[in-house]
Write a structure and sequence with these properties.
Layout lengths: L18 H13 L3 H18 L9 H12 L15 H5 L19 H10 L6 H21 L6 H12 L20 H16 L1
Helix pairs in contact: 1-2, 2-3, 5-6, 6-7
Length: about 200
């Protein structure tokens, strides 16, 4: 009985999605000494690759991508006339630039960055009915955000106290003019919060 050979013991495939048969075809093309024959073989391989994933034809420059993939599977050693300028090996080895994580100091994370931005904008709104309405809208949003974060901690006094901490002495407003009303939360997260609220009531 011949020895069983597992894929884990075989050569690692550069592009596993095309399978070992396509890789063997590429490896065979590398052994051909005649360039014209290599060219015909490469074009045949491209047609086979194209037929394997017809849905990719909807993508932009999909033909160019096929030739790029052929070059990758040959480790960029296949000497043929490529119809496109293929990707460079060095470009594949370069690591993408690190995306800096935005570092923002949010005073109360459960209210979110947008609420804090809106509160900073309040300072630029002239005193009057328009600013009062603006503050009232922000306070209502704060209550909704607090309810989504943890409905068990929701109460109007906390929202008003946090609003005062935000605005402090920068903006003059009358807390008695703020009407928070009732907050309705939709979605799976709110359902979880409602269950928590029900369990809390049962414990009481």
């Amino acid at each position: 009985m011949s020895k069983i050979e597992y894929n884990t013991q075989r050569k690692r495939l550069p592009l596993p999605e095309y399978g070992r048969s396509i890789q063997r075809m590429v490896d065979y093309a590398l052994t051909l000494e005649d360039k014209a024959e290599r060219q015909r073989c490469a074009e045949t391989i491209i047609r086979v690759m194209d037929s394997m994933f017809p849905e990719l034809r909807q993508q932009e420059d999909y033909k160019r991508k096929l030739w790029d993939q052929l070059a990758i599977m040959s480790d960029f050693k296949l000497d043929i006339d490529y119809p496109f300028e293929i990707v460079k090996k060095d470009d594949l080895l370069q690591k993408p630039a690190r995306v800096p994580y935005p570092q923002r100091n949010i005073h109360f994370r459960h209210y979110g960055l947008l609420v804090e931005r809106a509160l900073r904008h309040v300072e630029d709104v002239p005193e009057g009915p328009e600013r009062d309405r603006y503050i009232n809208l922000i306070a209502s949003q704060m209550k909704r955000n607090l309810a989504e974060w943890n409905i068990n901690t929701l109460n109007d006094v906390r929202v008003l106290n946090d609003l005062n901490r935000y605005l402090g002495s920068k903006v003059a407003y009358n807390p008695e003019n703020i009407s928070l009303g009732n907050v309705l939360i939709d979605g799976p997260r709110s359902d979880s919060n409602r269950m928590k609220a029900k369990k809390a009531k049962k414990r009481k």
